[in-house]
Amino acid sequence: MPAKLFVAVMFREEDVLASALDELEESFGEVDLRSEVFDFNFTRYYEAEFGAGLRKLFAGFAGPFERDRLVEAKLTCLEIERRLSRRGRRRVNLDPGYVTLHSVVLSSRKDRAHRIYLGEGVFAEVTLLYQRGRYRPLPWSYADYRTEVAQSFFLAARERLRGRRAER
Q1: Residue 77, CB-side half-sphere exposure with 13 Å CA sphere
Q2: Are 122 and 97 in contact (CB under 8 A)?
Q3: What is the DSSP string of 51-104?
């Protein structure tokens, strides 16, 4: 059953965001849903590579997404990150995942106990579960996925997915 593809985009510079979104649309089709941009101040993990003042948004893509393409989506995002890098340093971090009526699944290159290996160095985790009208975080859910910005985005993505299913 198809899902809705999204990419979490972390960046500092507006021109890098615009370039990343252009390349994502070339790869995955039209962006039909965007969250508001928010400050990414939940961890300092990325500051050594990117510098301070990071921001983030979630972008959803219009077409149906077959869940078995998550590895391909992650590898595509890694290639876009590489192309937009300068002097060996990333200027954007792209984390694809997908929304279903039941959950939000996120891809990662990092192996952890709660992640399932999909192949080619890519893992997947259920990051949020849909229960009683909201997406609920799990113990390992990142702080930015626990925000109201994320909640609003994923609920809107779920509604678009439901609408697409009703059209069949």
Answers
A1: 25
A2: no
A3: -S--EEEEEEEEEEE-GGGHHHHHHHHHHHHHHH-BTTB-SEEEEEEEE-SSEE
pTM of the entire predicted model: 0.95
What backbone torsions phi and psi does residue 156 show, to the nearest 5 degrees?
-65, -40
SS3 26: helix
Pull the structure tokens for residue 97.
């995942």
| Ordered domains of the chain (ranges, CATH) | 3-166 (3.30.70)
Do 38 and 27 form a contact (C-beta atoms < 8 A)?
no
Q: What is the mean pLDDT of residues 26-37?
A: 98
Higher pLDDT among residues 3 and 48, named by residue: 3
